[in-house]
């Protein structure tokens, strides 16, 4: 169970940076649909648990150190090649978004130049990747319980200080920007782009456990924890829509409402989530090309990190708009391939 919890915690730690960092993602994919957004959160929980289980089990079964083997296994030679290229590209893209996001967060909360904030995050990411995988998994998993505690505190406060009725909250929700045409599509798109971002490292994490049942339980636990976070954050923002209406970073605004110290704690959580995601994405991206025990792995990490920093200078908002919107549709193709592989349970040989 300890190993399952580690895999599940790392899965959550990886996803939260890309999908929870500002609260704006939950707002657009769930809260903007009012009460039905909570139903969407339940749908997302089930999807995350199933996909997490399947990917972790495939990684364990194939004992791969890179996502390449599993992607070719579920997609075949031709579709697998396309999925492999796209996932590899987005691993790099999401990490770059995290670098830019860290720069923006440092600037907003502490008045530090965005470039300096990005440099700090790049340095931390490179330093972490020079450690071994076991240490990386431990570091990534640490932030999960901390985040859950901070979110729970904000939720309790929000529920006890709610100043609007459910019907009023529903009315305000209808005026929020939505990322999809309805609550069901919003839930699917949210799961889609997050799985596109997290599939590679989840496969690698599954590959560290030889018992596929243990790996699968880890994937399920991670999916359930993600779902609980979605529902909690969604509910928190829903009952406080009068406060977060039109705010760029809703979770941070709610934390500051409680006390400035809680705001600082939330800012630390946001940076921790971005750090988790940056580390996970860059590790999965790098091991796609260089084995972690190869002598050129560490120099490659440094070079990739520097290239990522340069790319992050494009800007956080621009990167989010371009990368995430495309990833949602990529994720659908990947999800379909995963479901087909789970149904068929075929015996294809892994392309090494």
TrEMBL record:
The chain crosses the membrane at residues 33-58, 78-100, 112-132, 139-160, 180-204, 216-238, 258-284, 296-317, 323-343. It comes from the Bacteria. The keyword Manganese does not apply. InterPro entries: YkvI-like (IPR038728). Keywords: Membrane, Transmembrane, Transmembrane helix. This is Transporter. It comes from Lysinibacillus telephonicus.
